[in-house]
Amino acid sequence: MKKKTVLISAVIILIICFAGYKYFSKKENKPQISYVQVEAFQSDVKEVIDTTGEVAALNRVEIKPSVAGRVDSLLVNEGDYVRKGQILAYLSSTDRVAILDAVRANEKEKLSQWEDTYKPTPVLSPMNGKIILRNVVEGQTISTSDVLFALADELIVVASVDETDIGKIKYGQKAVITLDAYKDESVDGKVFQILEEGQNVSNVITYYVKIRPGHTPKFFKSLMTANIEITVTEKKNVTVIPWDALNEDSEGKLYVLTGDNNVNNKKEVTAGINDGDKVEIISGLNPGDTVLIKKQKYKSGGNTEETKGFLQMRPQKRKTNSEILTGTSSAQGK
């Protein structure tokens, strides 16, 4: 009987110890909330769309021979700028090739006479532009379906924009272009055309937007991968606060916290555009007003994890092409 009483007492003690451990563990894991004071201030802010695209020719013309035969000489190289009507190459027709080859074999001393009698066929440029492809070499036999050259009048950037963003794109909007191959060089441009027909790729609808660079650097080459930032809206000298100072209640109303670490109050505000780092405050705050950024610390097993409040609405920047290929992440709103 005594042994039974001791056993029951031990079980009760264990239950009390376990219950006490659970109670104090929960208490310890409760978030410890602290606040950082920041001031609303005046600044410029802009809303942008980050996307990707490629360098492309505005008008690409393939030049094919008017006669079948052989390439006698090529007068231009890739990268050369040519004018309309400029001679790019000389060709020998099939008949001229046969005659001159026979003369070379049998009457070489008369070759110049026959070359003067049967003139080669010139290949002319149909427009002003840049040679972006030279597809043949001298001495090559060609048919009328072969492409000799590809010519571009100017190089632009074609951006791929998601259908959820295409409604924000307008003609004349500013864009900043950065090529994967030249990450330290950025080029300003403007939207000049929005294509009407979308493309369905893996059930994602995208539209192509054409952007004309303010100037075309020498390092621009057709089909280079580009990362593009299109400015949708830009405002100057407006009241802004850090993004993390903005909060949202269960009804979807936006507010900020005012006061100090011990006493704080909710103040409803109206927000405008944001760039991921800061957000415009249309009403509810003035420059110099103090707001609070909530910090929450959770203690568990001796480790401390800190999280910033109200991250749900922060715009997520799209990964660049190089980051997608290498598996690294782009900065999210910095």
Outline the secondary-structure elements.
Layout lengths: L1 H28 L2 E8 L1 E17 L2 E4 L5 E6 L6 E2 L4 E7 H13 L4 H7 L3 E4 L4 E6 L6 E2 L6 E4 L2 E8 L11 E6 L2 E13 L4 E3 L2 E10 L11 E18 L4 E2 L5 E6 L4 E5 L1 E5 L3 E6 L6 E11 L2 E6 L12 H6 L8
Antiparallel strand pairs: 1-22, 2-11, 2-16, 3-10, 4-6, 4-9, 5-8, 6-7, 8-10, 11-15, 12-13, 12-16, 13-15, 14-15, 16-21, 17-18, 18-19, 20-21, 22-23
Describe the structure.
Strands 2-11-15-13-12-16 form a 6-stranded antiparallel beta barrel. Strands 3-10-8-5 form a 4-stranded antiparallel β-sheet, with no helix packed on it. 16% of the residues lie in helices and 48% in strands. It has helices at residues 2-29, 94-106, 111-117, 321-326; strands at residues 32-39, 41-57, 60-63, 69-74, 81-82, 87-93, 121-124, 129-134, 141-142, 149-152, 155-162, 174-179, 182-194, 199-201, 204-213, 225-242, 247-248, 254-259, 264-268, 270-274, 278-283, 290-300, 303-308. By secondary structure, the chain is an alpha+beta fold. The protein folds into 3 domains: 32-45 and 235-326, conserved putative lor/sdh protein from methanococcus maripaludis s2 fold (Beta Barrel), CATH 2.40.420; 49-57 and 154-234, Beta Barrel (Elongation Factor Tu (Ef-tu), domain 3), CATH 2.40.30.170; 69-152, RNA polymerase II/Efflux pump adaptor protein, barrel-sandwich hybrid domain (OB fold (Dihydrolipoamide Acetyltransferase, E2P), Beta Barrel).
